[in-house]
Amino acid sequence: MTDAVLSPGADSVATGDTVPPAAPRVARPADQPAARRTAQPAPATRAGNFSLQRGLQALREEMDAPVAAFFSSCVHCGLCATACPFFVETGDPKYTPIYKLEPMRILWERELTLWGRLKAAVGLGKQVTDEMLAEWEPLLYDSCTMCGRCSMVCPVGNDIQYMIRKAREGQVASGHAPEGLIAASVRAVRTGSPMGLKWKTLDVQIKHVETATGLTVPIDQQGADYLVLLSSMEIINFPEYLEAITKIFAHAGVSWTLSEQCFEATNAGVQIGSKDIAATLVQRVVDAAERLDVKHVISPECGHAYTAIRWEGPNAIKRAYPFQVFHIIEVLDQLRAEGRIKTQGKETDRLSMHDPCNLARKSGVIQQQRDLMDLIADDFVDLKEHGRLQWCCGAGGGVSSNERAAALKMAAFKRKKAQIEAVEPDRMVTMCATCRTQLEEGLEELTMDIPVVGLTELIADHLVMPEPPPAAEEARS
Ligand code: SF4
Ligand code: SF4
Known about the structure:
By secondary structure, the chain is of the alpha/beta class. The protein contains 24 helices and 10 strands. It has a 4-stranded parallel sheet with strand order 4-3-5-6.
């Protein structure tokens, strides 16, 4: 060999780690004696070992009582595999949900069980290495959307997606996280948006909406009832959402506002698995809501943004909010129940619905979207598995921000495709911008001509418009 990967001496790493395969190959200077070459670890390798220790420490900190109970109660039945779209559509055993947690399980066994400690004391038992964390990175990020379907079917109640969320903390700390998610997290912290959008981009959309509707989009309205958050993906891909809520809230007489200080709903910290980043992004929303003294915060048509701000947020910042959080669909359904949404006409083509995992399975918002569909659809048919047991679209949990996962994401989508084919809809309806994008891309790639529409937009299309003022009527006649 004329060059070599320089590796640390075995005594330089307390846990006996090995060198990650991705470590740079360093050219060996021809005039350097062999003894000196092997005695000096390369800087990159030392950094790798340091990162491993950080990763292991982060994993240790995540191992709470539920995690210990889950690992000790797993009966290795494999049922979780049958619930995971990544396993079901590839048949590859490495995509078995509980297997994705193997590094965390090894650390738990080695350090927190008597048997594991005894084995470790005599130099036996597996150890978590930097190489292992590198190998598991695609399993934890590319082949898991944290959809929670596996957690629903485990006969002993193991919440696998809860553990995957925790395992990602160790991955991030060790430096083994996808580049796309790292970049999105950095942009989110620096600019407020995982896509790097600034307020001026949204301001352009606001002006378009105001021109199209003749309505005013309220900004920084002190004391408004609702603070509306948006997702960058919506602003870029589905600007019709902002137009829809502007119309619906004007129609229903809702007091609402956007905040120039904080408009982004999505939380890259939750996706990548960083409590610190998650807390920073949640705190921005809380600061904006408190400054404007709103009573409620509305998460947009985005699944993970809703669970991040509603369920994970108070734990992230370690205090309760002085406001309530709702998904837009919950707000629309409440307005419907109060008789504040008047619609006219119904869609006559065959419509079906994709329930976002974070909304239906993780948050129990299932009937609300169906009650809203009743308002505006004549021919609605549910997918066979819907609500809590619906199948994930394959793009959530940061998978859509991870270019490396593109092929696997489409493989997982085949489960959704099969569901859609079975009910033969003319169009699909959903209420999450990530799901909608995945449905659109997946259906197009599979040459299925089935448009996808957001539910909020569909409701806005059927609003009873106010009677034109008499003066306008006279002018026309
Ligand atoms: S949370 Fe969803 S994607 Fe992840 S392992 Fe479980 S079923 Fe598979
Ligand atoms: S379904 Fe539950 S008990 Fe069965 S292998 Fe998966 S985690 Fe273990």
